[in-house]
Amino acid sequence: MAGYGRPHMAIRGSQAPGELGITLIVQDVARAADFYRDILGATELRRSHALHPGAEPGMEAFWAELRLSGTPLFVTRENPRWRDAPRPDWPRAPVSAGAASSFLTLYVEDVDALLVRAVAAGSRPDQPACPVQDGYWGDRIAQFHDPFGHVWRILTRIEDVDATDLPHRHAVQMEAHRQLRRTARPPG
C-alpha cells in the first residue's frame, strides 16, 4: 500500500467477465465478513482497510472480498452520507433503510445446524415458532435475518420429488398451514 512503506500494486479482482457478484452493504465490515466466513462457510480472499475519521489511531475494514458457494461476495461499509442524508437512489444497509429488499438463497449440508450457529451468532429466524420446515418440493428450509439485516434463505435437499406430485403435495402443505393458523387463533 502506498503511504505504508509499500510500492503501489495493482489488485486483480477475482471476478470473471460475465460472472455475477453480490455486494452487501453493512455498517461493520469486519464483523460481517467474519460472520459470512465463520457461519456460512465463505472463503475470505482479502480485506481492505481505511482510516475511520475521529477514531483512535488504527485501521477499520472498509470492504472485504469473499467467495460463497463459488459466487463472489463483496461486503462494503455503508457510506455515512447515504445513511445521514438518504436519497431513494442511494444504496443503504438494511439496518439503516429499515427493511431488506431481497433475500439470498444458499443450499447447505445441514439447515438445522447452520440455523443454530447463525442464531447463536446474532441472527434472527423469520418464524421463531417454527424456524425450520420441510417444503413440499423436497427441501428442508429456514429463513433468517443476519445481524446486519440481510435475509438468508437456507435449504437442504431431503428428497427428490416428481413434478407430477407437486400439486398434491402443495395442497396438503397449504391445508396443514391453514389448520395451524386456525389452532393458533384465540377463541372468540
From TrEMBL:
<dbReference type="InterPro" id="IPR029068">
    <property type="entry name" value="Glyas_Bleomycin-R_OHBP_Dase"/>
</dbReference>
<protein>
    <recommendedName>
        <fullName>VOC domain-containing protein</fullName>
    </recommendedName>
</protein>
<dbReference type="Pfam" id="PF00903">
    <property type="entry name" value="Glyoxalase"/>
</dbReference>
<dbReference type="InterPro" id="IPR037523">
    <property type="entry name" value="VOC_core"/>
</dbReference>
<dbReference type="InterPro" id="IPR004360">
    <property type="entry name" value="Glyas_Fos-R_dOase_dom"/>
</dbReference>
<feature type="domain" description="VOC">
    <location>
        <begin position="18"/>
        <end position="157"/>
    </location>
</feature>
